[in-house]
Design a protein that fits this description.
The complex is a heterodimer. Chain A is an all-alpha fold. Helix content of chain A is 56%, strand content 0%. The longest helix of chain B has 18 residues. The chains are: A mainly alpha, B alpha/beta.
Chain lengths: 142, 278
């Protein structure tokens, strides 16, 4: 028997460590928001970048996010231009991914953003596999 | 002696069997023995941000299966590659080396060059995103690969889209519309004959531009394969161009495999979808 914790536990612990690191390192300077090419598409764009980042950190702490923070979290598509812009090596791309997981309720907290999962997502993958691969390829490759 | 590798192609590229088959032939031609795996049973779990318990289970299953195969892994999908770097490989015992396909092809470009024998006279505009390049500098490497093809001229990249690939913009229609329009305008302003995508997730979205008659669209693998003389048909593009009439091309026998109702509800709307061009 392995003494290793269940894998779900390892992911949870990894994410908790990352959240703790980010909360400790971020100085709320707002540079990540200022350089983000997606901020313009937020439902609640803001000129106060420091406040938006503060709202993202609140989400990571399990608190309610501001509309501006949730608006930004909702449009993050992992451009990653925030990473070199950060003077504290926070890795804002990871910060935003964890905030997104948290805001969607994926890490156990109440959801603050609507979950828009496509119910046909995996069945559509299976369908295209059947349309594109032979029966033997389906059996051996998938 | 061929080197065994696992070719982990991902999930959604299963729309493009021609891309998967061409990648396998290219890997064979470069001296590898690729064993392809993908689909739902090999999903990385990156789509499960709203359910980290499910994401963890999927990641653990997939890393375990790739471990069992005992060969280096060549990755096609940028989402799988990113997720392995950022989450899966940091929370599971990853016992395999991993390379992104573009990196491998770029490293083997001296072997690839003599295989590209057919002229492809074409001025192409590369559709690129700002993201993912921190992991693999695809915006530099793919133009260098395309430049190996006789006749291909890669135009200056005058537009770089946000994000790392187009499919993640599905819930953000205004942003996706901007990407479509900016891509077409930049390509036409440069005198491009075609737009070329790096990722299948972008190809799936941008091939709608081709279907709408705006500009021809290819994935970079399509051009490498054509220059090598590989014969695969891009059926997804044919179906997309046919739109409502795609069923006639697919045929009743194949549609029956997925079910007529599912085809009409979940497949056909994607094939009929067209971009909003301004």
């Amino acid at each position: 028997m392995s003494n290793r914790p269940p894998i779900g536990q390892r992911l949870k612990e990894f994410e908790e460590r990352e959240v703790e690191r980010i909360l400790g390192a971020c100085t709320r300077c707002g540079k990540c928001y200022e350089v983000c090419p997606m901020a313009q598409y937020s439902k609640a764009p803001s000129s106060d970048s420091k406040a938006v980042v503060g709202g993202v950190l609140a989400v990571l702490r399990g608190e309610a996010g501001t509309p501006e923070a949730l608006g930004w979290i909702g449009v993050c598509t992992r451009s990653g231009v925030c990473v070199p812009a950060c003077p504290e090596n926070v890795n804002p791309k990871m910060m935003m991914r964890l905030a997104r997981m948290t805001a969607l309720g994926g890490r156990g907290q109440p959801a603050q953003l609507p979950v828009k999962e496509d119910p046909d997502y995996f069945d559509r993958v299976r369908a295209f596999a059947k349309l594109q691969l032979t029966d033997d390829e389906l059996k051996e490759w998938t | 002696m061929s080197e065994p590798v696992t070719f982990w192609y991902g999930c959604n590229v299963l729309r493009h069997g021609d891309i998967i088959h061409a990648c396998l032939d290219i890997l064979h031609a470069l001296g590898y023995e690729p064993s392809p795996v993908g689909g739902v049973d090999y999903c990385c779990g990156t789509v499960k941000d709203a359910n980290q318990t499910a994401a963890a289970g999927m990641a653990t299953r997939t890393v375990g299966k790739l471990n069992q195969r005992g060969a280096p892994v060549v990755v096609w999908c940028p989402s799988c590659h990113s997720h392995m770097h950022e989450f899966m490989g940091r929370t599971n015992e990853q016992r395999f080396d991993m390379t992104y396909l573009v990196e491998l092809l770029h490293a083997k470009r001296d072997q690839l060059r003599p295989l590209l024998v057919h002229d492809m006279p074409m001025r192409v505009f590369l559709h690129q995103h700002v993201g993912f390049n921190d992991l693999v500098p695809v915006n530099r490497m793919v133009p260098e690969l395309l430049g190996l093809i006789p006749g291909v001229e890669v135009l200056e990249a005058t537009y770089t889209a946000p994000g790392y690939m187009c499919a993640s913009f599905a819930p953000l229609p205004k942003a996706l519309e901007d990407i479509h329009n900016n891509t077409v305008h930049a390509a036409k302003a440069g005198g491009a004959d075609a737009v070329v995508t790096i990722f299948h997730q972008c190809y799936r979205e941008l091939v709608g531009l081709d279907a709408a008659g705006a500009i021809p669209v290819y994935n970079y693998i399509h051009l490498l394969a054509r220059s090598m003389g590989l014969p695969y048909r891009d059926e997804y593009k044919e179906w997309k161009r046919a739109g409502e009439g795609a069923g006639e091309l697919i045929g009743a026998e194949r549609i029956a495999k997925v079910g007529v109702q599912f085809y009409e509800r979940a497949v056909l709307p994607e094939l009929k979808k067209r971009p909003n061009l301004r």
